[in-house]
Write a structure and sequence with these properties.
heterodimer, A: 477 residues, alpha/beta, Rossmann fold, six-stranded parallel sheet, four-stranded mixed sheet, 22 helices, disordered N terminus, B: 216 residues, nine-stranded mixed sheet
Chain lengths: 477, 216
């Protein structure tokens, strides 16, 4: 198991003590923007009569792809190698980082431009470059902003969703020395001007991969800004990073996925640019790095295979009431939201991420919007079951004792009454304590203690019942 | 064991208990309604304009040349860089040759960035989404689509497919050709972003303006 650093700033679901959901959830625009996207998703799905058929087709194709993953990856490798690409494999982030550095050193690379790649976030590749003295610049506008701010993306499609235009203006003023502005067009022009220079001087370009087509050996990169096109064609070297699950069996299956991805990700019929890259262009080098990094752990549990069907559209994030409230950092790693809660435990293990499957109300909105029909709620329940039975923070001694005590208190009416009386007393007393220890402290730092309501329900019920009974009797007479 | 074999072995171990899954049929995606050529062009215009692209419709190549000259004057274009394709040659036949530059191997990206316009030819056009399908064989041709501030795509009306699945047979066949290099790119409007507060802004890294010259 790889040892990932999961202790990011503001990651309440994964931190032991600070389990407070009051931590900064970003700007208020997060809730509004996600709600708008989600409404858009629903409208689009309603507008297309065959939407449900597309989802079912996509699910079946992905199921086939994962069930034949070994053969399809080998076929993809063979076909894209025949088109002049060099295919490299990495078992974990460390190996992948080393491969990228080796390529960079071999070609004396000093600067790198990067298109958006979640795999590169998994690898923390920018740290690796920095340590090696190589300048790496994110070119997706959202990624560029969070990189300048030394932050992490909060959303997989719109990484800077938590920042307002004013925030971005301040970041540009501080890091780029630009005069402050909060005008969207102006900010975009500033980024364009700075990033143009980066493309033109970069020695190496990087990209993620949306789909890797096995029967033709084609890399598919989907984007809107044009930074994907520029990062993969301006520098003399293109390095593409992909997880093993990105493979599709045939080019004939691509249209349904392109239709689903554009609509679910950004509400577009098709994204502005869809690049079907067939191998290296004359005079240029193409490397493809295929990364495992825990994905085969997901394969080890048949009940979780569907987590590998994800096409990273972000629709479940926008639909999730928990994500909308807490933002992306709360999930502590690269993949936030409902999909993060099932992917992260698979990739980094339940031991570090066992709490994530509990960060959900199981309302089912994520499954409803998922274009691949991934049954996220059932996966969450399955992972919860595993988390309380396998080594994980949900299976600690204190968790076990707490639930034992709870089960004991709930399994007899006398015990229940006793327990409730203790809780009432406890809550009343807690107000007078000068400080609150442990988890209670984390909770009350951002909240008022609840007021203990009047008489217990049982007491008022027995009183009302005696009144009702006497009414009944008087009615009958 | 090297990384490749180790990963493949772990995949096989994970899949060993799996029941085989049948190859699913290729989904129809969209039914074909076979609209008339005129309906297709109108649909294309509507969709292209919805994504902030511009359509210039010309009855003949002569008309296209004169409209291109008007456009060049209005927008004060100087040098047009173009992919060396028959349709681009035809369109630029009347354009001053000292203000024309043809894609060549080893063309410096800095020079491509200085061009007023990048001109490429469409393989096919998709009415349903206002999309141009362009085959770029070299990095220089690719850059013509992304570096200059304006991208012009020239196409013929008889290349107009109904939608993505309608054009896909051709795409799939070409993609499968082992000698094929470079990329097929589906271009739907000029470059855009909504990364700051989800507000749409055009022309972030790629072209700010996309003009489709449709002949016939």
């Amino acid at each position: 198991m790889s040892s990932h650093d999961l202790h990011l700033e503001g990651a309440p679901f994964l931190k032991e003590q600070n389990a407070g959901l009051y931590e900064p959830a970003g700007s208020k625009s997060l809730g509004e923007a996600t709600e708008r996207s989600s409404k858009q998703n629903r409208a689009i799905a309603a507008e297309i009569p065959s939407w449900q058929d597309w989802r079912e087709s996509a699910r079946q194709i992905k199921q086939f792809a994962i069930a034949n993953l070994d053969k399809l990856l080998v076929q993809f490798e063979e076909r894209i190698s025949a088109r002049g690409a060099t295919v490299l494999w990495a078992e974990n982030a460390e190996q992948a980082n080393r491969l990228v550095l080796d390529i960079a050193r071999e070609h004396h690379v000093k600067t790198v431009v990067k298109g958006k790649s979640m795999v590169s976030e998994e690898m923390e590749l920018n740290h690796t470059f920095e340590a090696a003295g190589i300048r790496a610049v994110e070119t997706d506008l959202g990624e560029y902003i969070v990189q300048l701010a030394h932050q992490r993306p909060t959303h997989i499609v719109t990484p800077a969703l938590h920042l307002s235009a004013e925030d971005v203006g301040k970041i540009f003023a501080e890091r780029l020395g630009e005069p402050f502005s909060a005008d969207h067009q102006h900010l975009t022009n500033v980024a364009r001007r700075h990033l143009r220079e980066e493309y033109l001087k970069a020695d190496m370009g990087m990209s993620g991969v949306n789909f890797a087509v096995a029967d033709t050996g084609t890399l598919v990169v989907v984007e809107n800004e044009g930074n994907g096109g520029l990062s993969t064609s301006t520098p003399p070297i293109h390095v593409a990073l992909m997880g093993i699950e990105k493979v599709l069996p045939s080019i004939y299956y691509l249209p349904v996925f392109l239709n689903l991805l554009g609509r679910s990700g950004t509400g577009q019929k098709l994204t502005t640019y869809t690049h079907l890259i067939h191998g290296a262009t004359p005079g240029k080098k193409l490397y493809v790095i295929i990364l495992d990094n825990g994905r085969t752990n997901v394969l080890a549990d048949p009940a979780t295979h569907a987590a590998l069907h994800c096409i990273r559209c972000g629709a479940c994030l926008n639909a999730c009431p928990v994500y909308r409230r807490v933002g992306g950092w709360a999930y502590g790693w690269v993949y936030p939201g409902p999909i993060g809660s099932i992917v992260t435990p698979g990739l980094v293990g339940l031991k570090s991420a066992g709490k994530l499957p509990f960060a959900s109300s199981l309302c089912g909105a994520c499954q409803e919007v998922c274009p691949i029909k991934i049954d996220i709620p059932h996966q969450l329940v399955h992972l919860r079951h595993r988390a309380v039975n396998e080594p994980s923070p949900m299976n600690s001694l204190s968790e076990r004792l707490t639930w034992k005590a709870w089960a004991w208190a709930m399994s007899g009416s006398k015990r229940y009454r006793l327990a409730m009386a203790a809780v009432r007393l406890g809550v009343r007393m807690a107000k007078f304590l000068p400080w609150h220890p442990g988890k209670l402290g984390a909770w009350t730092r951002g909240r008022e203690l609840p007021r203990v309501p009047g008489p217990a329900f049982r007491k008022s019920w027995s009183r009302h019942r005696s009144q009702l009974d006497s009414h009944d009797r008087s009615d009958r007479t | 064991m090297n990384a490749r074999d180790a990963i493949l072995q772990r995949i096989r171990d994970g899949l060993s208990a799996e029941a085989p899954v049948e190859l699913p049929p290729v989904p129809a995606v969209w039914p074909r309604t076979n609209p008339s050529p005129e309906q297709r062009v109108e649909r294309f215009r509507r969709e292209l304009e919805a994504v902030q692209g511009e359509l210039i419709r010309c009855g003949s190549m002569d008309e296209a040349r004169s409209k291109l000259a008007d456009l060049a004057q209005q927008a004060k274009w100087s040098v047009i860089g173009a992919a060396d394709r028959p349709m681009c040659r035809e369109l630029l036949a009347g354009y001053p040759s000292d203000r024309t530059s043809w894609a060549k191997q080893g063309w410096d990206p800095k020079q491509i960035a200085e061009l007023s316009v990048g001109l490429v030819a469409a393989e096919s056009l998709l009415a349903d989404t206002g999309t141009c399908l362009v085959a770029n064989d070299t990095a220089e041709e690719r850059l013509l689509c992304y570096l200059p501030a304006t991208c012009v795509v020239v196409g013929r009306a008889d290349q107009m497919a109904e939608h993505l699945p309608d054009a896909w047979e051709d795409v799939a066949r070409h993609t499968a050709e082992p000698d094929r290099r470079g990329e097929f790119v589906l271009i739907t409007g000029p470059s855009r972003t909504a990364d700051i507060e989800k507000i749409l802004i055009l022309g972030v890294h790629g072209p700010k303006r996309l003009v489709v010259v449709l002949v016939g």
